[in-house]
Amino acid sequence: MSDLEAPLRPKRKKVWVDYFVQFRWILVIFVVLPISFTLYFLTYLGDVKSEMKSYKQRQKEHDENVKKVVKRLKERNPSKDGLVCTARKPWIAVGMRNVDYKRARHFEVDLSAFRNILEIDKERMIARVEPLVNMGQISRASVPMNLSLAVVAELDDLTVGGLINGYGIEGSSHIYGLFSDTVVAYEIVLADGQVVRATKDNEYSDLFYAIPWSQGTLGLLVSAEIKLIPIKEYMRLTYKPVVGNLKELAQAYMDSFAPRDGDQDNPEKVPDFVETMIYNSTEGVMMTGRYASKEEAKKKGNVINNVGWWFKPWFYQHAQTALKKGEFVEYIPTREYYHRHTRCLYWEGKLILPFADQWWFRFLLGWMMPPKVSLLKATQGEAIRNYYHEMHVIQDMLVPLYKVGDALEWVHQEMEVYPLWLCPHRLFKLPVKTMVYPEPGFEHQHKQGDTSYAQMYTDVGVYYSPGPVLRGEVFDGADAVRRMEDWLIENRGFQPQYAVSELSEKKFWRMFDGDLYEHCRKKYGAVGTFMSVYYKSKKGRKTEKEVQEAEQAHLETAYAEAT
């Protein structure tokens, strides 16, 4: 057997859940899709209503809602009430974690009113938004002004709060870093009800750097000021097919945006957007985009592709055509490009509705796509939930750029999941060590993609059923994720905690750095008010006793053992 050949596995006997999952499309078409479309439409009407208000009115409502949050926090009795959580239902989150910590007794704070764009400041190039503003909402407001957030996560439903407290990336992250790196100020309600504005250079600078990846366990985010950039009406997208082994595909991906001469800050050599999809162990398509004006896009001979229309082929399948017809270029309206993966949820839509990519379905019902992830979670019972944990993978592996080839080979051998999504991002060298951080001394090694101030990483997106599952073979999903986490720890990688994690507390603090986080937990009174980030990310149900014991033991954390 060759090094890259997947191991042989015995056949798995089907159980009733397999058949339920196989025919779940019936529930999705007749229940989930209609309700999803209705919710999308009602949300859109709410966004329009919000946009009709003046910024002054929105700010007034914001101030009133912040006062309600402060009042609610001060009503809490620490000796009687549970730890603080938002009032959002466990299944509403877009991430794959089932928010099990909310099954324990907790003290709810309602943040549902915080969904307004408070201001788009063209002079400061800042968008001030509330945490439940989603990507579709902010791009709909800013793109007509030829402005955009520096990093716009692809799926419409992803919220500012989730992308800050958790994890957010896009094809522009090789320039601007992760979503949280584009934030210039946070408005936070602390455990004692104090409202503070944290920036990188004020008295709350430690809190500013600790907020990303903290999962909302340091305070309640009520607004953020986020960097805007000027944009143009179209994205000039080049599709370049590559054939070779996984190491060769990885090198072609690196070369698509990282000049070998190290000139990483040269806009003539580095595209505005980068994305690669690996379709199997020998084929991939590299995509690079540059903003283009309406005049350029409409020149004679140029191809304009409105990928946002409901009847259009799903984007990942459209990109795959480059493997047959060779390299090609087209122009896509900028906002439609930003949200190119929304209709098909990358390629997860193929598993949810196996025939939804067919032309007849796209034409007749494609306008209702996609089903809301929250409704998919709400309509699955415990058995289906466990089935997906075992037979399905939704994980992101954040690895140094020079390790991408190794990561691709590992995924092929251990999971055999395709397509794979590759998206580069910078990890900046900051004044303090945050939960995720570049490798020590990277700036002296001059590896491809790195600069003196940032190390280039890549998100290897692993989303689909593994090959053994599709072939009806035995596959242990939980064990595969544990092995993936061990590989990431050994190779200086990170696992975003929106996904299902199998990490023990000791391994969690080997993967992430907890010094600054623990410092801010104690300094700002989060201990005893908000649960720790590990406990919030931990897989499985949480009892009230577990919550209390975890908080009481915080001074003797596994992080201390690991250091």
From TrEMBL:
GO biological process: steroid metabolic process
UniProt enzyme class: oxidoreductase
Keyword annotations of the record: Membrane, Oxidoreductase, Transmembrane, Transmembrane helix
GO molecular function, one term: FAD binding
Listed EC numbers: 1.3.1.72
TM region(s), chain numbering: 23-46
The name this protein goes by in its record: Delta(24)-sterol reductase
All copies of domain FAD-binding PCMH-type, residue ranges: 52-231
Chief location category: membrane
Any one GO CC term of the record: cytoplasm
